[in-house]
Each structure stands twice: as C-alpha cells, then as structure tokens.
Amino acid sequence: MMVSDVADLLIKEFGEKKIKISKDYLDKYGRDWYKGIEARPSAIFFPEDEKDIRDLIIFANKHKHPIVPSGGRTGLNGGATAANNEIVVSSEKLNKIQWLSDRNQIKCQSGVITDNAKEFALENNRLLPISFSATSSSTIGGNLATNAAGAKFIRYGATKEYVASIKVVLASGELIELRKDVLKDATGPNLMELFFGSEGALGFITEVTLNTFPLPAYTENILINFNDINLIQEKILKTNNKNIISAVEFWDSNCQKLFNKEKNNNYEVLIELAADSETEINKCLEDIANLNADVSLLNSKQTNELWSKREEIPVKLADLNAYKLDICIPIKNLKSYLNEIYKIDLDKEVYCFGHLGDGNVHVNIVSDTNLEELKSKIYELTISLNGSPSAEHGIGQRKKHIWADFSYYSDKLKLLKSLKKSMDPNNILCPKVFFN
Ligand SMILES: Cc1cc2nc3c(=O)[nH]c(=O)nc-3n(C[C@H](O)[C@H](O)[C@H](O)COP(=O)(O)OP(=O)(O)OC[C@H]3O[C@@H](n4cnc5c(N)ncnc54)[C@H](O)[C@@H]3O)c2cc1C
Prior knowledge:
CATH architecture of the domain at 218-384: 3-Layer(aba) Sandwich
Largest sheet: 7 strands, antiparallel
Strand content: 15-25%
Helix content: 25-40%
Shape: globular
Radius of gyration: 22 Å
CATH topology of the domain at 218-384: Vanillyl-alcohol Oxidase, Chain A, domain 3
CATH superfamily of the domain at 218-384: FAD-linked oxidase, cap domain/gating helix
Distance between the termini: 21 Å
Bound molecules: flavin-adenine dinucleotide
C-alpha cells in the first residue's frame, strides 16, 4: 500500500489527535539514537490505552502493514527505527504510574520514563536500581524490550529481574497478562522471558509491575587507578566484600584522554559500596586500602563528578562517531580479552569501558580507516573466548550480522524464527529488526 494511502486510512480510523504525519513528527519519532539507518515511517501513532494498540494491530493485520513499537528512542541499534514505511507506535502517552504500597511495587504503563519511575520509588523510600546514562529518556517498556541492564547489575541484576507482571498486546491483537508472584513456580517455562529482549518483534508491552528494593543505609564511593584487571577481580570481587558492592564501572586510558587527562595507569574503576551497616563498609574500605593500590575515597561532590564523567563517556564517544560494540566475556577471560584487544589496536583507536563485575565491555572503535578490520578482529577474539556480541543493547537492525558471525547462536535463531512465525504469521511487528 502507498504511504499516503496508509496515512489517510489511519487518520480516518484513529483521528488526527492520535495519528501524526507531518515531517517534524516523522523526523523526531521515526528513529532511535543510532543515526546510521535512514528513517522512513509512514505515520506516528500515539495510543492512549491498550484498546488503541489492539485496534492498530488489527488494522496492521488487515492491511498487512508493518508497525514498530517505540519508547524513549535511546536504543543504540536502530530497533525503533522505521526504515521501511512502518507505522511507529509511540508509548509516549502511556505514562500512568501507581504505587502498590502493600507490596512495595510500581505498577506503570510502558511509556513511563525510567527516571520518573526511579524518582517515584524514591518518593516511597525505595530503590529501583535501573542505572545507565540514558534513563532520563528511556522508558520502562523499552528497557524490558531491550533487556537493559547497566551499572547496578552486579548487585540487582537486569531490569527484567524486578518484574512481577507484564501485560502485552500480541501480534494477533490479544491482550495477555503474565505474572511471577512467587519465588518458585513450576507451571512450565517462565513465558514472560519471551518478551524481555524481544525488541518489539513478539508483542507490544503495555503495562509492567516492578518490585523495588530497600534503600541502603550507607553508601561510599571509591576510585582506584590500576594496571591489572586481576587486582579488582581477585582481590575485591572474589571476596566477601562483593556482597556490598553495587557498581564497578571501569574505563581505560584512552577514555581518560577524552577528558584531557593523561594517566600512568591503564584503568580507572569507580566502585560504589552500599550496605545496611557502617561496619561492613568500613571493613571493606580497610581491605581495599591494604591492597597497596592507588585508591581515593570520594566525598559527595567528587562522587557526583565521577559518576557524571562515567555517564559522559558514551556521549563523548558518540560525538566522535565511534562504532560501538557491546561485548560480554566470561569473567575469567576478561583480562586476556582486554590484553589481546590492545595488541590488535596498536594505533589506540579502541576505547573500552563498562561493567567490570559482569564481564560487559563496551568496545568503541574511533577510526575512519581501520574500522572494518578492527571490528572483525574484535569479533573473532570475542568468539574465541565464547563471548556475546550483545550484553545489554540488543541487536536491532544494525547488528543482525551477528547471527551469521556467531555460529553458536544458530539453534537460538532457528527457535526464534519459528516462534515468530507462529506468533506473528503476517510479520507485522518489526519485520526488519533483530532476527527477521
Ligand atoms: C548514552 C547511552 C547510554 C546507554 N547505556 C546503556 C546501558 O548502560 N545499559 C543498557 O542496557 N542500555 C544502555 N543504552 C541503550 C538504551 O538506553 C536501552 O536499550 C533502553 O532500554 C532503550 O529504551 P527506550 O525506551 O529508549 O527504547 P527504544 O529505543 O524506543 O526501543 C528499543 C527497542 O524496544 C522496542 N520497544 C520499545 N518500547 C516497547 C514496548 N512498549 N513494547 C515492545 N517493544 C518496545 C522498540 O521497538 C525497539 O526495538 C544506552 C543508550 C544511550 C543513548
């Protein structure tokens, strides 16, 4: 169907308040953070409730016209980019939020901005530990659809770990609810998992109930300059002190230079300690002080500055047009992985930072001439160490090549394709994304 025909039909059926087709809307809502794919949406739809989404999905099936769910558009791989005349379905107006005081849970629509949900938890003296630099724009629905993690993974796990229930509109138009109220549940596989990381291709998440956590009574932050990854891994992360660590963010000397800082050491690591007793924190600080490393205990001003610096790294690298790889390596292989990368990259074009506690390294290549060569060598190295090419950013349209490169995902791909076929026979949900 012609783009103008779809737009006319949509306006006729849903009205001009919910359907936008002007250039400013198409430009703004047609794509995510990744600028490498041109956006060509046919229209932007702003549903106000689940019925609107169901009606649109029925429309899409009837006209065999594809749609792309869209949240805060902070995705890094073109998952929310409508490159082929898809109708973008924005969750922007799905922003209701409610506190369930008897269970310390947040019940919210999927378009609630992540920081608003975190703030809401804080107002109720609780912690929602989703922590990364894009949470001022990302949405709870987008976080789950990409299986987002971040700095606090080491202590609290990925966002999906806090989910008590979700509602999803399937490609058939049916609205379903899946719950996880108990710790043990042997009623078959946990099917909620199907939608975590499914990047909009298996259903539109409309509502989410999230568990929250007690606020830690004491926190401290420290900065360590170091040369050997094993110092952090063996002497800190493999001791009982790990239990009170809530973030271990590292960056290499190339990243330090983004802040015009020359360093003698290879890495800096920002560690957040959080505990209910001061004694536990002091014991941990004492152990770390005895490591004979370059350690600084940060006051609150320095802590804020260091966290801002950490969050600025991906933004500064994006300004340099960096190609971003989001690798996860089995922790025992991390030291050799980083050593090998710097052997490949003799021209210092590769910038590494990330989450040391879970083996997630964001490898960024800033090179006009060596990009393809460096990329394929780094992927080869990742494969040789049984790593993942996507720790927390998903696949989108940009990284679909990984299915061919990483042969150990071939059975997963087969299963995903057959699920997709049975759940979305008309292929209307994100037909160009991810595994399609
Ligand atoms: C500077 C920067 C730093 C980042 N750091 C991190 C990090 O540390 N950790 C991390 O995990 N991510 C990080 N990201 C990536 C990004 O913020 C996350 O992937 C985030 O979860 C995306 O949420 P969103 O609402 O913006 O989703 P969008 O970008 O709008 O969409 C992402 C995908 O989810 C689908 N989708 C969106 N909403 C729904 C819905 N309601 N139902 C079904 N599918 C939906 C879309 O179709 C698309 O495929 C970073 C991004 C930036 C720009």
